[in-house]
TrEMBL record:
Keyword NADP applies: no
Transmembrane annotation, as ranges: 371-389
Species in which this protein is naturally found: Hymenobacter segetis
Superkingdom of source: Bacteria
CDD domains documented for this protein: HATPase, HisKA
EC number: 2.7.13.3
One of the record's GO molecular function terms: ATP binding
Annotated protein name in UniProt: histidine kinase
Catalytic activity, as annotated: ATP + protein L-histidine = ADP + protein N-phospho-L-histidine
Keywords for this protein: ATP-binding, Kinase, Membrane, Nucleotide-binding, Phosphoprotein, TPR repeat, Transferase, Transmembrane, Transmembrane helix, Two-component regulatory system
Spans of repeat TPR: 136-169
InterPro entries documented for this protein: HATPase_C_sf, HATPase_dom, His_kinase_dom, HisK_dim/P_dom, HisK_dim/P_sf, Sensor_HK_Regulatory, Sig_transdc_His_kin-like_C, TPR-like_helical_dom_sf
Domain Histidine kinase positions: 427-648
PANTHER family: HISTIDINE KINASE 1, TWO-COMPONENT HISTIDINE KINASE
Length: 649
């Protein structure tokens, strides 16, 4: 299984898998069960007759087999071993009950081969004792094992046998209820939702009639699953709420885990990601607590898919790694060789029984009828094998198509990353030309001034070097901030900031650069005006606006910083940077405002650095919920206005 997939495909896969959530038929239904496991433990610690001890061991196994199957297993094994030592006239009833209970434990632990071995033995005992109720439970449990393995044809064959026995006398309501629930689950697995709703509703009615609240909770969950498949989400929430309330009252950790997983899927369908995350994490804790590894696997799958959906690929990778590790563990525990041996053993016994029955009933028929019957049986088996192989081939094709889609998606993402990287490298290389050229020009000036003994020129060199280094440092800051902002690691931490202090700091930073070109920087802002913004991001915005203005403005130009409350929105403050530079055309302004997040490097030498700095300003302003507007005309200078949140009070 692969948790990384789109939401609709993932939801469909998971809903179909939920068809297997209906538990196996608990053996021993209707037996007298003591009030608590503690009472049973105290009784088992005393000296008791073998028949009494067998009854208590069987009851203890049945008591624990649903919620704590690992703890129930030793009691079930001890009960079977003790039943085998009883005299022949006392052995059969107790051995039959203990075999059914132990089979339920192995089924809940997902050990299909051992479950089938125990059920085969229980089937023979039930036939010999003419116990219709036990035989019906065996058929139902066998069907659920094959259902869990995805072999719906074999599962339906066993369920049909159980349905044929369901109306006979001696069959309990609990046994009918479990069969109806499992049949509903099978129809749902086959995507026959109306039939699934019918059988599950019958099972729910029987559970309420029998006052079995555990079963009622289970079938409410199943109905919620079917309604989710039909898109009836209001009914889903109502059914799941009832089911979860019952499970919480009973402290049934496994049922709670299943129902919380369903709630998580409901919240995903209704776009409530926070509630979905809380539900699936609670389900994961309960599943771990009760050792319910299948639900742990489902929780890992949902968490991985949701993390990927929200582009949190690091968490998605970790959840997916846990999913794969646990899935491998479960698969290793169910070896195919053991299951094949158990299946062959069962089919051999079944064929032998049928052959003996046909021989006894039809001894008078001739050799030709026997040959015909054998031929029909061989053809039927060949057809079943063909259907099985066809289904496996279809599943393999579906899995291959899904893998191809995932590979295509990954390739597209890699290509996008490569394009982004190349574009960033191009901008950095393009924008580095200006500062590097400035440094080269300074070295040429040094040689010229020294040759001419121009002391005044030499005195101006430190300012030129400082201007070139400030330009290079400013570019590197922009590149670093842009890269960090794209990875999501740059947090926005708003604090109250005094606008006059921000303006004064920016003016002091560029005062030397402006003076070297006979440029002027002025500012105007109310003395008590404050912003609610991230200090580093705001300084970067102002630095880029003033730096760009100075860079494109001729000698003797003027840059003016101004701040005022937004007259249209009292919650915002307007910061503007106006220069007397050459200005820009309407087409250039439109391209800058509507271009991509990372623009193409400009071939015009005068445009060095404009693209990345402005893109960074746009990103930081949008991070604060504000806007950036450029007003410019050729020959009339440029005005850039940004809106930022105002500090309250």
């Amino acid at each position: 299984m692969q948790p990384f997939m789109t939401r609709p495909v993932f939801l469909l896969r998971w809903l179909l898998a939920l068809g297997l959530l209906v538990p196996l038929v608990p053996a021993g239904a209707g037996a007298a069960v003591p009030v608590s496991t503690e009472v049973l433990r105290r009784q088992l610690a005393t000296r008791l007759p073998d028949t009494t001890r067998l009854r208590l061991l069987t009851a203890m196994c049945y008591r624990l087999h649903d919620e704590q199957p690992a703890r129930a297993l030793p009691y079930g094994e001890a009960a079977v071993a003790l039943a085998r030592t009883l005299p022949a006239d006392e052995q059969a009833p107790g051995l039959l009950r203990s075999l059914l209970n132990l089979a339920s434990c192995y089924a809940n632990l997902s050990n299909g081969p051992e479950t089938l071995n125990l059920l085969n033995e229980a089937q023979e005992l039930a036939r010999n004792q003419h116990d219709t109720d036990a035989l019906m439970r065996v058929y139902t449990a066998q069907g659920s094992i094959y259902h869990e393995r995805g072999d719906s044809t074999t599962a339906w064959r066993h369920y049909q046998r159980a349905l044929q026995l369901s109306q006979r006398s001696g069959v309990s309501g609990h046994t009918r209820m479990k069969l109806l629930g499992n049949v509903g689950s099978l129809f749902f697995f086959r995507r026959q939702v109306p039939q699934a709703l019918h059988y599950d509703s019958l099972a729910l009615a029987l559970a309420r009639r029998e006052s079995d609240s555990t079963a009622e909770s289970t079938y409410l969950s199943s109905l919620a699953t079917y309604q989710m498949q039909l898109g009836r989400l209001p009914r889903v929430k109502r059914l799941l709420t009832q089911a979860l309330a019952i499970s919480r009252r009973q402290h049934a950790a496994r049922n709670q885990a299943e129902q919380l997983i369903l709630f998580a899927m409901y919240y995903i369908q209704t776009d409530q990601p926070d509630r979905a995350d809380a539900a699936v994490r609670e389900a994961l804790a309960l599943a771990r607590q009760s050792g319910y590894l299948e639900r742990v696997l489902d929780a890992y799958s949902i968490l991985a898919a949701e993390a990927a959906e929200h582009d949190n690929y690091r968490d998605a990778y970790e959840w997916n790694k846990r999913y794969v590790d646990l899935n491998d563990t479960l698969n290793n525990r169910q070896t195919m060789q053991t299951l094949a041996a158990a299946q062959v053993s069962y089919e051999t016994q079944e064929r032998a029984r049928r052959l003996r029955q046909l021989t006894a009933q039809q001894a008078e028929q001739g050799w030709h009828n026997r040959v015909l019957g054998t031929a029909v049986a061989i053809l039927a088996m060949g057809l079943l094998v063909a259907v099985y192989l066809h289904r496996n081939l279809r599943r393999s094709r579906t899995a291959l198509a899904a893998n191809n889609r995932a590979l295509e998606k990954a390739s597209a993402e890699l290509r996008a990353v490569a394009v982004f990287k190349d574009k960033l490298y191009a901008i950095v290389a393009h924008d580095l030309r200006g500062p590097v050229t400035a440094f080269a020009g300074v070295t040429s000036l040094i040689d010229s001034y020294i040759a001419q003994n121009d002391q005044a020129g030499l005195a101006r060199l430190p300012a030129l070097v400082r201007q070139a280094s400030d330009s290079l440092n400013h570019l590197l800051d922009n590149v670093l901030n842009w890269a960090v902002s794209q990875t999501g690691e740059l947090d926005c931490r708003p604090t109250p900031l005094l606008v006059t202090e921000l303006f004064a700091e920016c003016q002091a930073l560029y005062q030397t650069t402006a003076a070297a070109s006979w440029q002027h920087i002025t500012m105007a802002a109310p003395p008590d005006l404050r912003l609610l913004a991230d200090r580093n991001m705001t300084r970067t915005i102002l630095r880029n606006l003033v730096g760009n203005a100075l860079k494109f403005m001729p000698a003797g130009g003027h840059v003016h910083l101004e701040a005022a409350p937004d007259p249209d929105d009292p919650r915002m403050v307007l910061l503007s940077c106006t220069d007397t530079g050459p200005g820009m055309s309407a087409a250039t302004v439109s391209s800058l405002m509507s271009g991509p997040a990372l623009p193409e490097p400009s071939p015009v030498p005068q445009a060095t650095g404009l693209g990345l700095g402005l893109a960074l300003c746009r990103a930081f302003v949008h991070r604060h919920g504000g806007t950036l507007v450029i007003q410019s005309r050729p020959g009339a200078g440029t005005n850039v206005t940004v809106s930022m949140p105002a500090a309250k009070g």
